[in-house]
Amino acid sequence: MALLEVEDLCIDYKTKNGYLKAVDGVSFSLERGASLGFVGESGCGKTTIGMGLMGMLPPNGVVRRGRILFEGEDLLRVSAEEMRRVRWRKIAMIFQAAMNALNPVQRVGEQVAEAMLVHNPSLGKEKALKAVEELFELVGLQTDRIRDYPHQYSGGMKQRAIIAMSLACRPSLIIADEPTTALDVIVQDQILAEIRALQKEFNIGIIFISHDISIVADMCHDIGIMYAGQLVEYGPREDVFDSPAHPYTRALLSSFPTLTGKRTDLVPIAGETPDLVHPPEGCRFYDRCQEQIPACREKVSRWVAISPGHKALCCRCEMDGR
Amino acid sequence: MELRRYILKRLVQITIIFFVILTVLFLLFRLAPGDPVSRMVDPDMTPEDAEQLIHQLGLDKPLGIQYLVYLKNFFTGHFGISFHYGEPVVDVIWNRLPNTILLFTTSIILSALVGIFLGKIASWHKGEKTDSVMTIGALVTHTLFLPWLALILIWVFGYKLGWFPINGMISEEVWLDPDAGFIAKGLDIGYHMILPLTTLFLIHFGAYLLIMRSSMLETLKEDYILTARAKGLEEKDIRDRHAAPNAALPVVTSVGLSLAFSINGGALTETVFTWPGIGRELVFSVSQNDYPLAQASFLLIAIVVLISNLVVDVLYAYLDPRIRY
Lengths: 322, 325
Known about the structure:
The structure holds 2 protein chains of 2 kinds. By secondary structure, chain A is α/β, with parallel strands linked by helices. Chain A has a domain at 244-322. Chain A has helices at residues 46-54, 80-86, 108-119, 125-138, 155-166, 185-202, 213-219, 237-242, 247-254, 294-298, 315-320, and strands at residues 4-15, 18-30, 35-39, 61-70, 73-74, 91-94, 173-177, 205-210, 222-227, 230-236, 303-307, 310-313. In chain A, strand 7, helix 6 (185-202) and strand 8 (205-210) form a beta-alpha-beta unit. The longest helix of chain A has 18 residues, at 185-202. Chain B has 2 domains: 2-76, no CATH class; 98-324, MetI-like (MetI-like fold, Orthogonal Bundle). Chain B is 78% helix and 0% strand. Chain B is built from 15 helices and no strands. Chain B has helices at 2-31, 36-40, 47-57, 63-76, 89-124, 129-143, 146-160, 172-176, 182-219, 223-230, 235-247, 249-265, 267-272, 278-287, 291-319. Chain B is globular. The chains are: A alpha/beta, B mainly alpha.
């Protein structure tokens, strides 16, 4: 049984103008200890998926349909209290904008210990702080920094502390939402290596969310490309990178520089994402697509298998038989 | 110990500021047009008494010496004789200051605690009925005119219902009773305090409620609140352990300002309730041209402002570790 199976997940945000379809019909699965990355530009719904998995959508967020099977249990059907107990104990999160993810007026060690004590109050504060020491060693933080406050930490140290915190309850799934966005590339590299090593050591499933395709390529076995609330291409990393099928994926790849491949001009993707309150009938990328055909506009796109495990949501791919 | 070093640093700063104020005040009273003697010595005194006081205040010496005498007098507690009361200024102040501190500190702490608590609840129920009732209630009570509210309370609860004394701070029959113990006297003061305290509380808690509410709403948007929720904390704990301590910081600043101005700002309340406090005395001394009392009062205000600043700084540093470094 897969660790996580998401089927046809649809999440709407209630807005003044109507329901905004932030996540529309997303399905994927993740094995224990595997890694999956979601890439897409801002507003494509990748963070909303993470929040949906945690049961932490903002008040105006509603799950319209779908199933989130986590360890065989549908998280969309459990009570709020049960969901609270799943959080961090089973699914932990490494946040976007790690700079403010720690409470400025509490000692870092106590915040990490709190994560353990919430789910296991009988542990006691002293034992919890002892366990924090181990976690700090694990992520390469000096244990004498446990009693420090967040502002005494550098950006990289804060992120390490958050990683330590995410491991506090030995979860089976960690959702990492832009975990290194605010860090410089050297620290970013160290942090990513750290996450990879720990993932292997503890056999944790990781969902990696980033707008930076190179990080996801580095970290994840499977990749999902997201556009305007939909998953548009999904498959093993090599397949998606070496033979991208969806025009958006190709456009995305050519808008990023590469160090090893041949030198090409970076091509920005012109245009804007469609209105998600009234999304177009056909392909959502139609207006910006370089390879559009009339059918793309009218027909609802369907998934096309490119190779085993590699698929794309594209009308042209279907026609071309790619 | 960063906290101790921080407090020490603030103490040194405050001492320096205080000396500056002391000097400015000295110059203000000496360099103002007119004869300083006439300002510091009661015209009704006998010539001998006046002579002695002039000597004690150093008014017969050059300005430099006067300054030193002034400093010496300050540290030995000689501020001259009040024109109006004919007793040392120190005694006048010393008899009334504790009454003011008792009433206002109690009212500020009480209204701050209640305001913080209610503001927290209101923000948690933002947009709901609880929030509307609290916010509107706070706005209404906060904008009431203090003397009006005080008079209404006196009229209803003091006069019509007769539940509470109408004015004063003590009942003579209790304090003149040789058998009355410490507790009985304390209870008597408390009994007299209820109406002025209620007035001050009603006027002030709304401000704290509104500050706390908006501060909470800001804090709840912070990333660490998201972290706390992701950690699986119960909503109550997110609110009380993560949001409220951060949100309460601006309220602390506001409490400090209220403390600082309670000494002189309490004149209205003290007058309506004939509370024998210092605020009433200050207004009185100025209107009566009682210079010695006025000078000492200015100094007192400076001291109170400085001390409440220090209290706020220390409290702030205690609550927010970022301040200490």
